[in-house]
Specification:
Layout (H helix, E strand, L loop, with lengths): L2 H8 L5 E2 L5 H11 L3 E6 L2 E7 H10 L9 H4 L13 H11 L3 E6 L2 E7 H24 L10
Parallel strand pairs: 1-2
Antiparallel strand pairs: 2-3, 4-5
């Protein structure tokens, strides 16, 4: 299974912010849209990721205030990325290794979407549930034994 399978189901709605926007505006957008991350774009290029983790670290560093901080100061400026062709096993490994809850999906320099750890877990569970249903149906339709012979 590949990242493209997740994006096909998830859709392609993206929420972005620029690095020079106030962090308070970004946090308000995250709260309003009930999302855990924003892709930071500048001049059409991915320059970072802003997640609730970076927001919390920044707020703590500012004594509990967002203040006049810009997104640029809080964002992860080297986010781990994948492509639509990346296998889900590889995505899981990377996300676990890097403690990344969100991963931008890139096609060369073009942003194709963002997948979350939740998206990956849900896709795997859904796939396993489908496989279990197929196996149960197969077992249920097992040919009956005749005269003790298989």
């Amino acid at each position: 299974m590949k990242v493209s399978d997740i994006l096909r189901v998830k859709g392609n709605t993206l929420f972005t912010v620029t690095p020079d926007e106030p962090l308070s505006v970004a946090v308000a957008a995250m709260a309003e849209k009930d999302i855990g991350s924003l892709v930071v774009m500048e001049h059409g290029d991915l320059v970072g990721m802003l997640t609730f983790r970076e927001v919390i670290v920044c707020i703590v560093a500012n004594g509990g205030q967002v203040g006049t901080t810009l997104v640029r100061k809080a964002m992860d400026d080297a986010p781990v990325t994948c492509t639509v062709e990346t296998e889900l096993d590889e995505v899981r490994r990377i996300m676990l290794e890097r403690h990344a809850r969100y991963m931008p999906v890139m096609d060369k320099r073009m942003l194709m979407g963002v997948i979350s750890f939740y998206d990956v877990a849900k896709t795997i569970v859904d796939s396993q549930n489908f496989e279990n249903k197929m196996l149960k149906a197969y077992i249920r339709d097992w040919p009956a034994e005749e005269d003790g012979k298989v």
